[in-house]
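Reviewer 2 asked us to include a model.

Predict the structure of this chain.
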Amino acid sequence: MDWLSRLFRVALERIGIATESRLGGSLHFFLYDCVKITVYLCALIFAISYVQSFFPPERTKRIMGRFHGIYANIIAALLGTITPFCSCSSIPIFMGFTAAGIPLGVSFSFLISSPMVDLGSLVLLTGIFGLRIASVYVILGLLLAVLGGLVIEHLSLENEIEPILLQLQPVEQALPTLSRKERLSYAAEQVKTTFRKVFPYILLGVGIGSLIHNWIPENLIISLLGKGNPVGVILATLVGIPMYADIFGTIPIAESLLMKGAELGTVLAFMMGVTTLSLPSMIMLRKVIKPKLLGTFIGICILGIILIGYIFNALQAVLLV
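Predicted model (structure tokens):
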């Protein structure tokens, strides 16, 4: 979308704001990224929601119930890619899977995959960082989801589920047969609903990104998150965890950090920490699982994200060619 970048650059310069200045550069980054991400967002939500209309929770549970062992974890992780964009939205589906008797580790494979490697992340990362980086990101994210679920299954932590979750009774419903018009209407409604929920985080994320891009000294970013700091990945992961946003709000920040000299794996670890382990989602999850299981889940995700971050840093020279 270079034409859009040029359009905003010309518009700002015509009203007397030089885009080479800090203020002009910040305004250009903010306007361009807000519009670009909004276009991506609406197109993605519509397309993904149309696909989701074929996979209501009841059908998804039946599909998962046909598989066992590692194959069930793989299917759960893949199904996570066509479900909600944020971790808080994934937890009710996780609860439904567990209440329906889906193995605990399989449900957690879904819970890890859903916010981290949805189809939106693939398309957005492709648009910002390129297909090579986006593909490796999705592959490693799915691998973390599968292995994380297998570890939880191996630890036999079924007794670490809160009684309230065990008391939930799965409701058997007839699967609706929707017409094409109804699916399109559903997708359009999902665009409206999700956009209203997500847009404030886009504004916040792009706003932070524009400040990083034009106001924070490059040497500061490099010293904290560049090659000179071997614990930059760990720092970025831990900083990202308390935040709450989705892929659409974190990508502008990651883009700005990378342009300022942060390492690729470090900014992707930050993104994963924000989208997978946000504080609100962990509070919600604590309501239905006990501290030991919650701590195990968080620990697996943190270690996996950090490892993925270092892998990306090691491959940065190849991936950014």
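The mean pLDDT is 80. The chain has one domain: 2-168+181-319. We have added this to the supplementary material.
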